[in-house]
Amino acid sequence: MGGLTDDEAFRKTTFVVIDFEATTPTGSPAQPVEVAVLALRYDGEWRETGRRTSLIRPPAFAPVTPAFTAQTGLTAAELQAAPTPAEALGALDRRFTAGTSYLLVAQHAATEANLIYHQRQHCPALARIDLLDTIPLAKRCVPGLINYRLDTLLAYFGIAQPADRHRAPADVAVTAQLFRRLIALAHDNGEVDSLAGLVKIAGRAAPGNAPVQEELFEIAPQEAE
Questions:
Q1: Is-contact 219 96, C-beta < 8 A?
Q2: Among positive and negative, which fits the CA dihedral 185, 189, 190, 191?
Q3: What residues pair up with 42 in beta bridges, in sequence order?
Q4: pLDDT tens digits for 123-137?
């Protein structure tokens, strides 16, 4: 009997690890100021099939605060020169091509799901993709940790903290490493033996998704900008 990574549906899926950095204006949804994605396929070994990153100009009602700059290193001046949400997320959306099943992967996927939902007019393809959350998957694979924050999970698996932690490209890179470790555990322990089982444990429906996904998309290969 095969395990998770032997499942045909698993092997046909592109897993798109995604992370946003965002400002959090009072009384309004969080506004993205940086996005990064890294697409992976498994065919006996993991292969990167595409990646993209972009800064995003925040609206006037969601200014960059000193605390945000201290955490990320991103400044108000730098972000004012960035592409608008329509430009940045539209360019990302156009990197998706019809024909292949895929899922987004994120640490605490509700955050990414909500950001995408509120920007869905700029990225309609992205907004229709369901998600996998590494937190419930980690709880199944490594029960009993004190918490399941990203830093805790990186320490548990011995994944080095990136120097630019809290920047989207760095966080995507380590989340992708974490996801691969968790998939290996899920395969080896035999508790998850199919993509359907993985989705049952860690899946999260895209808030703006139609009842049935009629088309699925895959990120076309592209070097990070």
A1: yes
A2: negative
A3: 46
A4: 999 999 999 999 999
